[in-house]
Amino acid sequence: MIFISTCSQDTTTDIVMKELDADDVLRFNIDKPEDHAWDFHRDGFRIADKIGGKEITDQTMTSFYLRKPMYFDRIDVPKYGCEENWRREETKELFSDFFRECQSRGLVALVRSQSNKYGKLRQLIAANNHFRVAPWHFFHGELPDELNRGRWVVKPVTGTAVGKDKMMLVRAVDPAKLDLSYPWFVQERIDGEEEVTVVYIDGRTYAASAPRDSFGGEDSRKSLMENPTSWPRCALSTDEERAIKGFMDETGYRFGRFDFIRKDGELWFLELNPNGQWAWLDERNENGLVTMVADAIKSEDRAHRENPSL
After folding, report:
1. Judgement on whether residues 86 and 170 belong to the same structural domain of the protein
2. Same domain, 238 and 197
């Protein structure tokens, strides 16, 4: 049985589950603990879906598919903490550790973002070996001299809210006006023709693109939320395919969604999200993206069943 760890608002899991055998999957929504019961002990574990009536144990689990186990309804944690935050953190740590244990036993399907994690800094360093990369700085306390020239955008490193659930998005900035008492990540603005996103699925790629002028600002996420844009499939050159595979081989990932900007025919690297949302590129599975991901999960699960280790 495949165990999917996510949350109730994860529509990507809603879509991919249609391609899996529903009777052979237990979906765990971390934000709905009342729908589940669990018991981990020295001889194994049992996780039950109290709504659907299914359960998974150390004897029946064959794969762990990590999606988005997160809490979208943020809470204001008071100075000395609160019971709700304690409940969330305890649950999150338990299932994070469960994922790490399954990973150590080779039972994780596709997403391995917790093992050899590459954050923005390590990604940008590795990307230099495979792609064009615009100049960038992570800085604090003093303004790097290079930032006095050219055009720059500021980017968030985490998804942390900055007050009243407001999120920092990518935006054009004059670095000289930034408060140096805060840490900043800025990158030189890339004046490209189109944004390209590539889903990498265990050696295969699915690429799509959209013109840069179809977005209202520097951050495509804002435009996608306010005015969903069609991202038709696009072709990658042999060299681009080779570069993408080389980056994934170097970082050790088998799955992820790349963000690029195409400028003068070349791909400029922005980032890799090792477990990013991807179903919005082909929600109705008209181009087979959902099937590609589901087939990769099922293929790994078959391998796990042939060589059980839990």
Report:
1. no
2. yes
Q: Which domain holds residue 173?
A: 136-188
CA 125 to chain centre: 19
**What's the structural domain count of the chain?**
3
Residue 91 corresponds to which tokens in the numbers above? Answer: 């649950």
Judge if 157 and 252 occupy the same domain: no
Structure pTM?
A: 0.89
- Identify whether residues 240 and 128 lie together within a single domain: yes
H helices of the chain, in order, are 11-16, 83-104, 120-127, 220-226, 238-251, 289-306
Q: What is the pLDDT along the chain (310 residues), one digit of tens a residue?
A: 999 999 999 999 999 999 999 999 999 999 999 999 999 999 999 999 999 999 999 999 999 999 999 998 888 888 899 999 999 999 999 999 999 999 989 999 998 754 568 889 999 999 999 999 999 999 999 999 999 999 999 999 988 878 777 888 899 999 999 999 999 999 999 999 999 999 999 999 999 999 987 665 555 555 454 455 679 999 999 999 999 999 999 999 999 999 999 999 999 999 999 998 999 999 999 999 999 999 999 999 999 998 876 6
* The pair of three-digit structure tokens given for residue 74, joined into one six-digit string: 């943020």
Residue 191: closest CA among 218, 155, 220: 218
| Bridge partner list, 207 | 198
The answer for residues whose C-beta is within 8 angstroms of residue 58's C-beta and 6 or more apart is 43, 44, 45, 310
Tokens of 81: 């903490």
Q: Is residue 289 part of a domain?
A: no
Are residues 300 and 267 part of one domain?
A: no
